[in-house]
Specification:
229 residues; mainly alpha; Glycerol uptake facilitator protein
Length: 229
């Protein structure tokens, strides 16, 4: 068995599991009486992903999100096989992260919060919720291209991306949960069996990621930076 072939998918699985545990877990912890509040929850998402991306960046590229992998595939930065492998690893990682939350937190608070499954505000229509997730994901994926993909990107690891997620979670967390990541929504939803609005967290990020990929591939990236890695 060639362990080199498994390094990247394992990094994506473990990294996504850790991200879902800390991000969705912050929602559960807040409901359990730890007064994180909106700022604390947003920080758990942003700081958590910043550290995890930085630690996996040189192994797998630190995608940790099917929407990010989709954008990089559309921009021809990864091939179809890597895209499929990464997405599978990320979804499994999301499930493992949710199972860890279920194992470590009290059953009652896990049930009330659906293990941190993102929720849609009753003030939004389905279309509006999709539009919010698309806009946020467009911003997130643009941050990925601008700080990690572009050869001219500043050497800041995952912290620029983490700041983007922190901003989105802080401003729009009350609207859609600011998931921007199908694995972040899917894992807790599957384990808690709460599928309300799940389609929002697939269509919205998919649209936002596709638009960002087109912008960066055809306009913003240097001409010599669009080959498959």
């Amino acid at each position: 068995m060639n362990s080199q072939a498994y390094r990247a998918p394992v990094a994506e699985l473990v990294g996504t599991a850790l991200f879902v545990f800390f991000s969705a877990g912050s929602v559960v912890a807040n409901a359990a009486g730890i007064p994180l509040g909106p700022i604390g929850i947003a920080l758990a998402h942003g700081v958590g992903i910043a550290v995890i991306i930085t630690m996996t960046l040189n192994v797998s590229g630190g995608h940790l999100n099917p929407a990010v992998s989709l954008a990089l595939w559309l921009a021809q930065k990864i091939d179809g096989r890597k895209f499929a492998t990464y997405v599978a690893a990320q979804l499994v990682g999301g499930i493992i992260g949710a199972l860890l939350i279920k194992a470590f937190f009290a059953t009652g608070v896990g049930r009330v919060t659906s293990l941190g499954t993102p929720q849609i505000s009753g003030a939004l229509t389905l279309f509006e919720a999709i539009a919010v997730e698309a806009l946020l994901t467009f911003f997130l994926v643009s941050a990925v291209f601008g700080t990690a993909v572009s050869p001219d990107a500043p050497k800041v690891g995952g912290f620029g991306i983490g700041l983007a997620i922190f901003t989105c979670a802080l401003v729009c967390g009350s609207l859609t949960g600011a998931a921007m990541n199908p694995a972040r929504a899917f894992g807790p939803a599957l384990v808690s069996l709460d599928w309300h609005g799940q389609i929002v967290y697939w269509i919205g990020p998919g649209v936002g990621a596709s638009l960002a990929a087109a912008l960066w591939r055809y306009v913003l990236l240097p001409r010599d930076a669009t080959d498959i890695a």
